[in-house]
Amino acid sequence: MHHAPEVWTNHRAAMMRETGSAGFGPFGIGHNNGPPLDPGADWRRFCWKKAHARAWKTPPREIALARLARAEALGMSYRAYTAVLLDTGVHL
């Protein structure tokens, strides 16, 4: 017969009495504070954020005005036109 649930319940009750908390750290219920499941996620997120910022950096005035004029001629917003340009590399 296994008594782990009772031990855990008693431990949690003791924690609540002593500290006023349920004894959980900054992570949620069920988190074992183990390593991340995807160890490269932080690096990829960092690279993506840098590339995103570089891609959406404000272009020189002449280019921005030319894109705006072309977007208005097509009935699109500047942002939508630029998104298509960045996604496909095609000037509509």
Q: How do you describe this structure in short?
A:
The chain has 92 residues and is mainly α. It has helices spanning 4-19, 41-55, 61-74, 78-88.
Write a structural description.
The radius of gyration is 27 Å and the shape is elongated. The longest helix is centred in the N-terminal third of the chain and has 16 residues, at 4-19. It is an all-alpha fold and 92 residues long. The chain is 61% helix and 0% strand. The chain has four helices and no strands. Helix 3 crosses helix 4.
Give the helices and strands, then pairings.
Layout: H1 4-19, H2 41-55, H3 61-74, H4 78-88
Helix pairs in contact: 3-4
Q: Report the C-alpha radius of gyration, rounded.
A: 27 Å
Q: What structural class results from the helix and strand content?
A: mainly alpha
Strand content: under 5%
E-strand count: 0
Please write the string of helix (H) and strand (E) elements.
Answer: HHHH
Average pLDDT, all residues: 78
Instruction: Determine the number of helices (DSSP H or I, runs of at least 4 residues).
Output: 4
Globular, elongated, flat, extended or rod-shaped: what is the shape?
elongated
Helix proportion range: 55-70%
User: Termini separation (Å)?
Assistant: 72 Å
Unreliable stretches: none
Biggest beta-sheet profile: none
